[in-house]
Predict the structure of Glutamate--cysteine ligase.
Amino acid sequence: MGDSRHQLFQQFARDQWGGFSKGIEKEGLRVDRNGFIAQTPHPRALGSALTHPRITTDYSESLLELITPVCNSTEEALAALWDTHHFVHQHLGDEVFWAASMPCQLDGDDSIPIAEYGSSNIGQLKHVYRQGLAVRYGRMMQSIAGAHYNLSLPDSFWVQWQTALEDKQRLQDFKSQQYFWLVRNFRRRSWLLMLLFGASPALDQSFVANVRHSLSRLGNDSWYGPEATSLRMGDLGYHNNAQASLNICFNELPTYTATLAKAIHTPWPEYERIGTRRGDAFIQINTSILQIENEYYSAIRPKRTTERGEKPIQALDARGVEYVEVRCLDLDPFSPVGMSAPQIDFLDLFLLDCLLSDSPIIEAAECQYLDDNFSDVVSHGRQPAATLETQDGALAVSDAGRQVLDGLESLAAKLDDLSGGERYRQALSQQRQKLEDPALLPSACVLQAMERAGQGHREWVLAKSIEHQQAFRDRRLSAETQARFESLSEQSLAEQDAMEAEDTQPFATFLEAYLAD
Protein backbone atom coordinates (compact mmCIF):
# COMPACT_ATOMS: atom_id res chain seq x y z
CA MET A 1 0.00 0.00 0.00
CA GLY A 2 2.83 2.39 0.87
CA ASP A 3 4.57 1.84 -2.50
CA SER A 4 1.33 2.43 -4.37
CA ARG A 5 0.78 5.70 -2.48
CA HIS A 6 4.28 6.81 -3.43
CA GLN A 7 3.60 5.82 -7.03
CA LEU A 8 0.37 7.81 -7.04
CA PHE A 9 2.21 10.87 -5.78
CA GLN A 10 4.91 10.45 -8.43
CA GLN A 11 2.15 11.03 -11.00
CA PHE A 12 1.42 14.55 -9.70
CA ALA A 13 2.27 17.31 -12.16
CA ARG A 14 3.61 20.78 -11.33
CA ASP A 15 0.22 22.41 -11.87
CA GLN A 16 -1.38 19.92 -9.45
CA TRP A 17 1.04 20.49 -6.59
CA GLY A 18 0.08 23.29 -4.23
CA GLY A 19 3.15 22.98 -2.01
CA PHE A 20 3.26 23.06 1.78
CA SER A 21 1.70 25.51 4.21
CA LYS A 22 3.94 25.98 7.21
CA GLY A 23 4.45 27.98 10.37
CA ILE A 24 6.90 28.16 13.26
CA GLU A 25 6.44 28.81 16.99
CA LYS A 26 9.78 29.59 18.61
CA GLU A 27 10.24 29.89 22.37
CA GLY A 28 13.12 31.52 24.20
CA LEU A 29 13.94 32.92 27.62
CA ARG A 30 14.66 36.54 28.41
CA VAL A 31 17.78 36.63 30.59
CA ASP A 32 19.93 39.33 32.18
CA ARG A 33 23.51 40.07 31.10
CA ASN A 34 24.82 37.58 33.65
CA GLY A 35 22.78 34.72 32.23
CA PHE A 36 20.14 34.69 35.00
CA ILE A 37 16.45 34.37 34.15
CA ALA A 38 14.77 37.78 33.76
CA GLN A 39 12.56 38.91 36.63
CA THR A 40 10.95 41.74 34.66
CA PRO A 41 7.41 41.66 33.22
CA HIS A 42 6.73 41.04 29.54
CA PRO A 43 7.86 44.27 27.79
CA ARG A 44 4.85 46.50 27.09
CA ALA A 45 6.35 47.55 23.76
CA LEU A 46 5.85 43.96 22.60
CA GLY A 47 2.10 44.28 23.13
CA SER A 48 -0.30 42.04 25.00
CA ALA A 49 0.84 38.45 25.51
CA LEU A 50 -2.86 37.52 25.62
CA THR A 51 -3.93 38.92 22.25
CA HIS A 52 -0.85 39.62 20.10
CA PRO A 53 -0.87 37.28 17.05
CA ARG A 54 2.93 37.12 16.70
CA ILE A 55 4.51 37.71 20.13
CA THR A 56 3.30 36.04 23.31
CA THR A 57 4.64 34.15 26.31
CA ASP A 58 4.62 30.46 27.02
CA TYR A 59 4.58 29.03 30.56
CA SER A 60 6.75 31.69 32.17
CA GLU A 61 6.53 35.47 32.03
CA SER A 62 10.18 35.33 30.97
CA LEU A 63 9.60 32.73 28.23
CA LEU A 64 8.81 34.52 24.98
CA GLU A 65 7.03 32.72 22.16
CA LEU A 66 7.32 34.10 18.63
CA ILE A 67 4.77 32.91 16.08
CA THR A 68 4.89 33.21 12.30
CA PRO A 69 1.74 33.46 10.21
CA VAL A 70 0.90 30.57 7.89
CA CYS A 71 3.48 30.72 5.09
CA ASN A 72 3.78 29.10 1.67
CA SER A 73 7.55 28.68 1.57
CA THR A 74 10.54 28.10 3.79
CA GLU A 75 11.92 31.53 2.86
CA GLU A 76 8.67 33.25 3.82
CA ALA A 77 8.50 31.46 7.19
CA LEU A 78 12.10 32.25 8.08
CA ALA A 79 11.76 35.87 6.92
CA ALA A 80 8.73 36.28 9.19
CA LEU A 81 10.64 34.74 12.09
CA TRP A 82 13.66 36.99 11.45
CA ASP A 83 11.46 40.10 11.38
CA THR A 84 9.79 39.19 14.67
CA HIS A 85 13.13 38.50 16.34
CA HIS A 86 14.40 41.80 14.99
CA PHE A 87 11.51 43.73 16.54
CA VAL A 88 11.82 41.86 19.86
CA HIS A 89 15.54 42.58 20.16
CA GLN A 90 14.81 46.31 19.88
CA HIS A 91 12.78 46.18 23.09
CA LEU A 92 14.83 43.95 25.40
CA GLY A 93 17.01 46.73 26.79
CA ASP A 94 19.93 45.13 28.62
CA GLU A 95 18.30 41.70 28.50
CA VAL A 96 19.24 38.92 26.09
CA PHE A 97 17.16 36.35 24.19
CA TRP A 98 18.53 32.93 25.29
CA ALA A 99 19.66 30.81 22.32
CA ALA A 100 19.38 27.30 23.76
CA SER A 101 16.58 24.97 24.79
CA MET A 102 17.91 24.16 28.25
CA PRO A 103 17.67 27.23 30.47
CA CYS A 104 20.00 29.84 31.83
CA GLN A 105 20.93 30.16 35.50
CA LEU A 106 17.97 29.62 37.82
CA ASP A 107 17.50 29.79 41.57
CA GLY A 108 14.76 27.28 42.19
CA ASP A 109 11.05 27.52 41.43
CA ASP A 110 10.65 30.98 42.94
CA SER A 111 13.02 32.48 40.38
CA ILE A 112 10.70 31.54 37.51
CA PRO A 113 7.78 33.99 37.22
CA ILE A 114 4.52 32.45 35.99
CA ALA A 115 3.08 34.18 32.92
CA GLU A 116 0.46 36.88 33.50
CA TYR A 117 -2.36 37.65 31.06
CA GLY A 118 -4.42 40.31 32.77
CA SER A 119 -7.79 40.28 34.54
CA SER A 120 -10.12 38.96 31.81
CA ASN A 121 -11.53 35.50 32.47
CA ILE A 122 -9.62 34.02 29.52
CA GLY A 123 -6.46 35.69 30.81
CA GLN A 124 -7.02 34.35 34.30
CA LEU A 125 -7.72 30.86 32.91
CA LYS A 126 -4.36 30.87 31.12
CA HIS A 127 -2.60 31.96 34.31
CA VAL A 128 -4.36 29.39 36.53
CA TYR A 129 -3.49 26.64 34.03
CA ARG A 130 0.16 27.60 34.41
CA GLN A 131 -0.19 27.68 38.20
CA GLY A 132 -1.50 24.14 37.86
CA LEU A 133 1.57 23.12 35.90
CA ALA A 134 3.71 24.59 38.68
CA VAL A 135 2.02 22.60 41.46
CA ARG A 136 2.01 19.43 39.36
CA TYR A 137 5.48 19.49 37.81
CA GLY A 138 7.35 22.32 39.47
CA ARG A 139 8.25 25.58 37.76
CA MET A 140 11.66 24.42 36.56
CA MET A 141 10.01 22.66 33.62
CA GLN A 142 8.48 25.97 32.58
CA SER A 143 11.91 27.33 31.72
CA ILE A 144 12.64 24.82 28.94
CA ALA A 145 12.27 26.15 25.40
CA GLY A 146 11.84 24.61 21.96
CA ALA A 147 10.58 25.16 18.44
CA HIS A 148 7.27 23.85 17.12
CA TYR A 149 6.85 23.29 13.39
CA ASN A 150 3.35 23.36 11.91
CA LEU A 151 2.64 21.81 8.52
CA SER A 152 -0.45 21.32 6.39
CA LEU A 153 -1.32 20.59 2.80
CA PRO A 154 -3.86 22.72 0.88
CA ASP A 155 -7.36 21.50 0.05
CA SER A 156 -6.38 21.44 -3.63
CA PHE A 157 -3.97 18.63 -2.77
CA TRP A 158 -6.44 16.78 -0.58
CA VAL A 159 -9.15 16.81 -3.27
CA GLN A 160 -6.77 15.31 -5.81
CA TRP A 161 -5.32 12.87 -3.28
CA GLN A 162 -8.79 11.67 -2.32
CA THR A 163 -9.63 11.12 -5.99
CA ALA A 164 -6.38 9.22 -6.54
CA LEU A 165 -7.15 6.93 -3.60
CA GLU A 166 -10.77 6.51 -4.79
CA ASP A 167 -12.02 7.54 -1.35
CA LYS A 168 -15.68 8.55 -0.90
CA GLN A 169 -15.71 10.11 2.59
CA ARG A 170 -16.47 13.72 3.39
CA LEU A 171 -13.33 15.72 2.63
CA GLN A 172 -13.08 16.75 6.30
CA ASP A 173 -13.09 13.12 7.45
CA PHE A 174 -10.66 12.07 4.73
CA LYS A 175 -8.18 14.78 5.71
CA SER A 176 -8.37 13.76 9.38
CA GLN A 177 -7.84 10.13 8.48
CA GLN A 178 -4.81 10.99 6.35
CA TYR A 179 -3.25 13.29 8.93
CA PHE A 180 -3.47 10.47 11.48
CA TRP A 181 -1.88 8.18 8.89
CA LEU A 182 1.01 10.66 8.87
CA VAL A 183 1.06 10.88 12.69
CA ARG A 184 1.38 7.11 13.09
CA ASN A 185 4.45 7.02 10.88
CA PHE A 186 5.87 10.08 12.61
CA ARG A 187 5.71 8.18 15.88
CA ARG A 188 7.59 5.30 14.24
CA ARG A 189 10.37 7.59 13.00
CA SER A 190 10.52 10.56 15.37
CA TRP A 191 13.67 9.14 16.98
CA LEU A 192 15.50 10.19 13.80
CA LEU A 193 14.62 13.86 14.35
CA MET A 194 16.10 13.65 17.84
CA LEU A 195 19.33 12.28 16.38
CA LEU A 196 19.56 14.77 13.51
CA PHE A 197 18.34 17.90 15.33
CA GLY A 198 18.74 17.26 19.06
CA ALA A 199 20.89 20.13 20.34
CA SER A 200 20.62 20.04 24.14
CA PRO A 201 23.25 17.60 25.45
CA ALA A 202 24.29 19.87 28.35
CA LEU A 203 22.74 22.14 30.96
CA ASP A 204 23.52 24.56 33.75
CA GLN A 205 24.03 23.02 37.17
CA SER A 206 21.26 25.20 38.63
CA PHE A 207 18.66 23.27 36.66
CA VAL A 208 19.41 20.01 38.48
CA ALA A 209 20.24 21.43 41.92
CA ASN A 210 18.93 18.94 44.51
CA VAL A 211 17.67 16.63 41.75
CA ARG A 212 18.85 13.04 41.32
CA HIS A 213 20.17 12.44 37.80
CA SER A 214 22.64 10.35 35.83
CA LEU A 215 24.46 13.16 34.01
CA SER A 216 28.23 13.63 34.01
CA ARG A 217 30.05 16.69 35.32
CA LEU A 218 31.24 19.15 32.66
CA GLY A 219 33.55 21.79 34.12
CA ASN A 220 32.62 23.63 37.29
CA ASP A 221 29.04 24.67 36.53
CA SER A 222 27.57 22.30 33.94
CA TRP A 223 26.35 18.75 33.49
CA TYR A 224 25.97 16.76 30.28
CA GLY A 225 24.95 13.46 28.77
CA PRO A 226 28.07 12.09 27.02
CA GLU A 227 25.94 10.27 24.43
CA ALA A 228 22.74 12.35 24.71
CA THR A 229 21.11 14.23 21.87
CA SER A 230 18.33 16.11 23.70
CA LEU A 231 18.12 16.46 27.47
CA ARG A 232 15.02 18.58 26.84
CA MET A 233 13.11 15.54 25.58
CA GLY A 234 14.47 13.14 28.20
CA ASP A 235 13.69 12.33 31.81
CA LEU A 236 14.49 15.87 32.95
CA GLY A 237 11.77 17.29 30.69
CA TYR A 238 7.99 16.99 31.04
CA HIS A 239 6.95 13.74 32.66
CA ASN A 240 5.22 12.59 35.81
CA ASN A 241 3.40 9.58 37.17
CA ALA A 242 -0.03 10.87 36.23
CA GLN A 243 0.85 11.35 32.56
CA ALA A 244 2.73 8.06 32.56
CA SER A 245 -0.63 6.41 33.30
CA LEU A 246 -2.16 7.77 30.10
CA ASN A 247 -2.66 5.72 26.97
CA ILE A 248 -3.50 8.39 24.42
CA CYS A 249 -4.39 6.73 21.13
CA PHE A 250 -2.88 8.31 18.01
CA ASN A 251 -4.44 5.86 15.58
CA GLU A 252 -7.50 7.87 14.53
CA LEU A 253 -9.33 11.07 15.44
CA PRO A 254 -12.31 9.66 17.42
CA THR A 255 -10.12 7.58 19.74
CA TYR A 256 -7.58 10.39 20.09
CA THR A 257 -10.13 12.96 21.27
CA ALA A 258 -11.97 10.36 23.39
CA THR A 259 -8.84 9.30 25.29
CA LEU A 260 -7.81 12.93 25.82
CA ALA A 261 -11.31 13.80 27.05
CA LYS A 262 -11.19 10.87 29.47
CA ALA A 263 -7.89 12.16 30.92
CA ILE A 264 -9.41 15.62 31.41
CA HIS A 265 -12.32 14.11 33.35
CA THR A 266 -10.46 11.43 35.34
CA PRO A 267 -9.45 12.60 38.86
CA TRP A 268 -5.90 11.96 40.05
CA PRO A 269 -5.54 11.38 43.81
CA GLU A 270 -2.42 13.51 44.25
CA TYR A 271 -4.04 16.47 42.49
CA GLU A 272 -7.20 15.99 44.53
CA ARG A 273 -5.10 16.31 47.68
CA ILE A 274 -3.67 19.59 46.37
CA GLY A 275 -7.14 20.95 45.57
CA THR A 276 -7.98 23.78 43.19
CA ARG A 277 -7.59 26.71 45.60
CA ARG A 278 -5.34 28.14 48.23
CA GLY A 279 -7.58 30.49 50.09
CA ASP A 280 -9.44 32.46 47.45
CA ALA A 281 -6.76 31.97 44.79
CA PHE A 282 -7.12 29.25 42.17
CA ILE A 283 -3.99 27.13 41.78
CA GLN A 284 -5.17 24.65 39.14
CA ILE A 285 -8.12 24.37 36.78
CA ASN A 286 -9.21 20.95 38.03
CA THR A 287 -7.86 17.86 39.79
CA SER A 288 -7.91 15.54 36.77
CA ILE A 289 -4.93 13.82 35.14
CA LEU A 290 -4.92 16.69 32.64
CA GLN A 291 -6.29 20.17 33.27
CA ILE A 292 -6.72 20.77 29.52
CA GLU A 293 -5.61 19.03 26.34
CA ASN A 294 -2.42 21.06 25.97
CA GLU A 295 -1.03 19.66 29.20
CA TYR A 296 -0.42 16.32 27.48
CA TYR A 297 3.08 16.53 26.10
CA SER A 298 3.66 14.60 22.88
CA ALA A 299 6.21 14.86 20.10
CA ILE A 300 3.46 15.65 17.59
CA ARG A 301 -0.12 16.92 17.80
CA PRO A 302 -2.95 16.90 15.28
CA LYS A 303 -4.38 20.43 15.48
CA ARG A 304 -7.32 22.61 14.46
CA THR A 305 -7.43 26.38 14.90
CA THR A 306 -9.80 27.17 17.77
CA GLU A 307 -12.28 29.99 18.07
CA ARG A 308 -12.32 32.16 21.20
CA GLY A 309 -13.39 30.06 24.18
CA GLU A 310 -13.39 26.83 22.17
CA LYS A 311 -11.45 23.82 23.44
CA PRO A 312 -9.02 21.97 21.13
CA ILE A 313 -11.02 18.72 21.40
CA GLN A 314 -14.21 20.53 20.44
CA ALA A 315 -12.53 22.09 17.41
CA LEU A 316 -11.11 18.75 16.26
CA ASP A 317 -14.40 16.90 16.70
CA ALA A 318 -16.37 19.63 14.94
CA ARG A 319 -14.11 20.45 11.98
CA GLY A 320 -11.42 17.77 11.80
CA VAL A 321 -7.63 17.99 11.65
CA GLU A 322 -6.28 21.13 9.97
CA TYR A 323 -2.52 20.65 10.42
CA VAL A 324 0.10 18.77 12.44
CA GLU A 325 2.37 20.37 15.01
CA VAL A 326 5.84 18.86 15.47
CA ARG A 327 6.84 19.64 19.06
CA CYS A 328 10.08 17.74 19.69
CA LEU A 329 12.53 20.17 18.08
CA ASP A 330 15.32 21.69 20.15
CA LEU A 331 16.42 25.23 19.43
CA ASP A 332 19.45 25.37 17.16
CA PRO A 333 21.80 27.60 19.22
CA PHE A 334 23.93 28.26 16.14
CA SER A 335 21.02 29.94 14.35
CA PRO A 336 19.87 33.43 15.45
CA VAL A 337 16.24 32.30 15.03
CA GLY A 338 16.63 28.72 16.30
CA MET A 339 15.98 26.95 12.99
CA SER A 340 17.52 26.76 9.52
CA ALA A 341 16.25 26.42 5.95
CA PRO A 342 17.73 22.91 5.35
CA GLN A 343 16.08 21.71 8.57
CA ILE A 344 12.67 23.02 7.50
CA ASP A 345 13.01 21.55 4.02
CA PHE A 346 13.95 18.19 5.52
CA LEU A 347 10.95 18.32 7.85
CA ASP A 348 8.66 18.90 4.86
CA LEU A 349 10.20 15.92 3.08
CA PHE A 350 10.11 13.74 6.19
CA LEU A 351 6.47 14.54 7.01
CA LEU A 352 5.26 14.05 3.45
CA ASP A 353 6.94 10.64 3.36
CA CYS A 354 5.13 9.79 6.61
CA LEU A 355 1.91 10.42 4.69
CA LEU A 356 2.92 8.41 1.63
CA SER A 357 4.44 5.35 3.33
CA ASP A 358 2.50 2.35 4.60
CA SER A 359 1.07 3.15 8.04
CA PRO A 360 -0.75 0.32 9.79
CA ILE A 361 -2.51 0.85 13.10
CA ILE A 362 -0.10 0.94 16.05
CA GLU A 363 -0.86 -1.89 18.45
CA ALA A 364 0.08 -1.83 22.13
CA ALA A 365 3.32 -3.83 21.76
CA GLU A 366 4.61 -1.59 18.98
CA CYS A 367 3.59 1.51 20.90
CA GLN A 368 5.83 0.46 23.79
CA TYR A 369 8.97 -0.09 21.77
CA LEU A 370 8.40 3.10 19.76
CA ASP A 371 8.43 5.03 23.03
CA ASP A 372 11.55 3.13 24.09
CA ASN A 373 13.30 3.89 20.78
CA PHE A 374 12.60 7.59 21.15
CA SER A 375 13.82 7.62 24.75
CA ASP A 376 16.96 5.64 23.90
CA VAL A 377 18.02 8.01 21.10
CA VAL A 378 17.37 11.02 23.31
CA SER A 379 19.59 9.58 26.04
CA HIS A 380 22.19 7.54 24.11
CA GLY A 381 21.73 8.33 20.42
CA ARG A 382 25.39 9.17 19.81
CA GLN A 383 26.63 5.94 21.33
CA PRO A 384 28.32 4.05 18.45
CA ALA A 385 26.68 0.76 19.43
CA ALA A 386 23.18 2.23 19.98
CA THR A 387 20.35 0.12 18.60
CA LEU A 388 16.61 0.40 17.96
CA GLU A 389 13.93 -2.22 18.40
CA THR A 390 12.04 -3.08 15.21
CA GLN A 391 9.53 -5.75 14.22
CA ASP A 392 12.47 -7.68 12.78
CA GLY A 393 14.67 -7.34 15.85
CA ALA A 394 17.40 -4.95 16.97
CA LEU A 395 18.94 -2.60 14.39
CA ALA A 396 21.85 -0.18 14.77
CA VAL A 397 20.68 3.43 14.99
CA SER A 398 23.05 4.44 12.20
CA ASP A 399 21.74 1.69 9.90
CA ALA A 400 18.12 2.52 10.74
CA GLY A 401 18.82 6.17 9.95
CA ARG A 402 20.35 5.32 6.59
CA GLN A 403 17.34 3.18 5.74
CA VAL A 404 14.98 6.09 6.36
CA LEU A 405 17.12 8.54 4.39
CA ASP A 406 17.52 6.07 1.51
CA GLY A 407 13.71 5.82 1.38
CA LEU A 408 13.47 9.61 0.96
CA GLU A 409 15.68 9.86 -2.14
CA SER A 410 13.01 9.43 -4.82
CA LEU A 411 10.56 11.69 -3.00
CA ALA A 412 13.21 14.42 -2.65
CA ALA A 413 13.84 14.21 -6.40
CA LYS A 414 10.10 14.42 -7.08
CA LEU A 415 9.64 17.48 -4.84
CA ASP A 416 12.58 19.18 -6.54
CA ASP A 417 10.97 18.43 -9.89
CA LEU A 418 7.65 19.90 -8.69
CA SER A 419 9.13 23.02 -7.14
CA GLY A 420 12.26 23.50 -9.22
CA GLY A 421 15.83 23.49 -7.90
CA GLU A 422 17.58 21.00 -5.63
CA ARG A 423 16.61 22.16 -2.15
CA TYR A 424 15.13 18.84 -1.00
CA ARG A 425 18.02 16.73 -2.25
CA GLN A 426 20.44 19.17 -0.66
CA ALA A 427 18.55 19.05 2.66
CA LEU A 428 18.60 15.27 2.52
CA SER A 429 22.32 15.24 1.69
CA GLN A 430 23.05 17.45 4.70
CA GLN A 431 21.32 14.99 7.03
CA ARG A 432 23.11 12.05 5.44
CA GLN A 433 26.45 13.73 6.18
CA LYS A 434 25.52 13.77 9.89
CA LEU A 435 24.99 10.01 9.87
CA GLU A 436 28.30 9.42 8.11
CA ASP A 437 30.16 11.74 10.48
CA PRO A 438 28.49 11.88 13.94
CA ALA A 439 30.71 14.83 14.86
CA LEU A 440 28.37 16.89 12.65
CA LEU A 441 25.32 16.08 14.78
CA PRO A 442 24.09 19.27 16.53
CA SER A 443 24.46 17.71 19.98
CA ALA A 444 28.09 16.89 19.20
CA CYS A 445 28.67 20.35 17.72
CA VAL A 446 27.41 22.02 20.91
CA LEU A 447 29.80 20.03 23.09
CA GLN A 448 32.69 20.65 20.70
CA ALA A 449 31.99 24.41 20.68
CA MET A 450 31.85 24.55 24.47
CA GLU A 451 35.13 22.64 24.71
CA ARG A 452 36.88 24.87 22.15
CA ALA A 453 35.71 27.97 23.99
CA GLY A 454 36.63 26.53 27.37
CA GLN A 455 33.18 27.52 28.63
CA GLY A 456 30.37 25.88 30.55
CA HIS A 457 26.79 25.75 29.30
CA ARG A 458 25.70 29.09 30.78
CA GLU A 459 28.77 31.02 29.65
CA TRP A 460 28.78 29.57 26.13
CA VAL A 461 25.05 30.03 25.47
CA LEU A 462 25.14 33.57 26.86
CA ALA A 463 28.02 34.47 24.52
CA LYS A 464 26.11 32.94 21.59
CA SER A 465 22.94 34.81 22.57
CA ILE A 466 24.77 38.15 22.73
CA GLU A 467 26.33 37.41 19.35
CA HIS A 468 22.88 36.81 17.85
CA GLN A 469 21.50 39.93 19.51
CA GLN A 470 24.27 42.09 18.08
CA ALA A 471 23.58 40.73 14.59
CA PHE A 472 19.98 41.91 14.85
CA ARG A 473 20.82 45.26 16.39
CA ASP A 474 23.40 46.00 13.70
CA ARG A 475 20.59 46.14 11.12
CA ARG A 476 17.34 48.07 10.91
CA LEU A 477 13.89 46.81 10.06
CA SER A 478 12.25 48.47 7.08
CA ALA A 479 10.02 51.39 8.02
CA GLU A 480 6.97 49.47 6.79
CA THR A 481 7.75 46.37 8.86
CA GLN A 482 8.57 48.47 11.92
CA ALA A 483 5.25 50.30 11.65
CA ARG A 484 3.35 47.04 11.20
CA PHE A 485 4.79 45.55 14.39
CA GLU A 486 4.18 48.72 16.37
CA SER A 487 0.58 48.70 15.17
CA LEU A 488 0.14 45.04 16.15
CA SER A 489 1.42 45.81 19.65
CA GLU A 490 -0.92 48.77 20.08
CA GLN A 491 -3.90 46.84 18.73
CA SER A 492 -3.23 43.89 21.02
CA LEU A 493 -3.11 46.12 24.10
CA ALA A 494 -6.38 47.76 23.09
CA GLU A 495 -7.98 44.35 22.51
CA GLN A 496 -6.94 43.15 25.98
CA ASP A 497 -8.34 46.34 27.52
CA ALA A 498 -11.63 45.78 25.72
CA MET A 499 -11.83 42.15 26.87
CA GLU A 500 -11.24 43.15 30.47
CA ALA A 501 -13.86 45.91 30.29
CA GLU A 502 -16.45 43.53 28.85
CA ASP A 503 -15.85 40.75 31.40
CA THR A 504 -18.29 41.17 34.28
CA GLN A 505 -18.74 37.48 35.15
CA PRO A 506 -16.81 36.35 38.27
CA PHE A 507 -13.94 34.03 37.38
CA ALA A 508 -15.27 31.23 39.61
CA THR A 509 -18.55 31.27 37.69
CA PHE A 510 -16.71 31.40 34.37
CA LEU A 511 -14.52 28.44 35.34
CA GLU A 512 -17.50 26.38 36.48
CA ALA A 513 -19.17 26.90 33.10
CA TYR A 514 -15.90 26.17 31.27
CA LEU A 515 -15.49 22.84 33.07
CA ALA A 516 -19.13 21.90 32.51
CA ASP A 517 -18.88 22.50 28.75
